[in-house]
What does this fold into?
Amino acid sequence: MIESKNALTPQQIVAELDKYIIGQKDAKRNVAIALRNRWRRMNASLEMQNEIVPNNILLIGATGVGKTEIARRLAKIADAPFTKVEASKFTEVGYVGRDVESMVRDLVEQSVNMVKAAKKETVREKAAQIVEEIILDVLIPPVKEKRNTSNSFTGFAIDNNGGEDQEINEKTRERFREKIKNGEMDERKIEISVHQSSGSNVGMVGPGMDEMAMINIQEMISGMLPKKDKRRKVSIAEARKILLEEETSKLIDMDEVKEEALRKAENSGIIFIDEIDKIANRSGAGSGGPDVSREGVQRDLLPIVEGSSVNTKYGIVKTDHVLFIAAGAFHVAKPSDLIPELQGRFPIRVELNSLTKDDFYQILKEPRNALTKQYVALLASEEVVLSFHDDALERIAEIAFQVNSEIENIGARRLHTVMSHLLNKFLFEVPDIIGANAQIVITKETVDEYLKDLIRNKDLSQYIL
It folds into this structure.
């Protein structure tokens, strides 16, 4: 049985995606089904769990329509390790470039970081208490117990006020403990000892080594070198952060972390392969130049997507149940230009719609991370209130759509260009000219005034991202 967080129904998953992504219903439905199928598989009989394979998805659509965002948000909803790679960065074995297996190693690294972060949270309170004692020991060293000494003349034991000193010391420590908790001593400098591992950058001369062999050699040499302690003088606030990281790391069992991370990567991992159309053999293209290695890259990707065992520094990972989501614009090449075996490993194909003017308006208004809300938050940090009229948002959407239509369609990313051009003057004038408690209201007239050059200039070349 997997975590309840992953037990969202397909409709609930789509509802979560709707909070951040406008439109693209087909894509959302398909990724929601793929995610729910993972929960179904993990709750199926043990006999069938290994037999059920994920239905990998191929997203087809122009840049900026939400392909990457859908995959990234899906991973967050599932609390799953996620890595994005660009297929064009991989090269056929024997050529200079990244090894295709590195995507699986990246996924495992993400998984380890996720599990480690979760484990650290469980021990953070205990680690904070330890750190508090370390800082107190630096500020007010504890009084060592003094042994009773015997007077050679009388033969009686003398305490030398040891008990009294210890009581005073404890009261002082408690007083300082309260001050530390209240943040009254955050700026005070103290000297602490910080563990420092000896770094090892290994270079090879001669025949090249694969990525995994290099990682193993670096790990081995790093493990052989002695750990060094370095004395640093830092503020108590900074010391708390440094020591908290060290103490939480000491309290977690790394073997347990690795074991859980490998299991999480195998059963919940999502690998997003972008620009897969760049490694397709384009219809009618010649066989010369860079096309030579395209089919080779596809054949190297095939066993990873089909399911194979990949050696990582944390252990062997099986990719049989990793969900692969591939994406590409496919302006020149077509999905059918991929080798048949690879096509067969992406049975779910979804074509994403180009964004309309109304989509741009919704993108500016509805998502939780909408650009308008981001700018409102930025200026709120300066105690300036920014607001947008509805007709202003409609005009911004119209201009962004127009620029995409006349120059190059880069989807929702065009909104960044337009919004930046619109608000640059205000962002520059706050707080020197526009002070705290000011209100900035963006109306349709404001948009027309500040974007008139952008509207008038038919060339628009200076505004292309």
Summary: The CA atoms of residues 126 and 288 lie 63 Å apart.
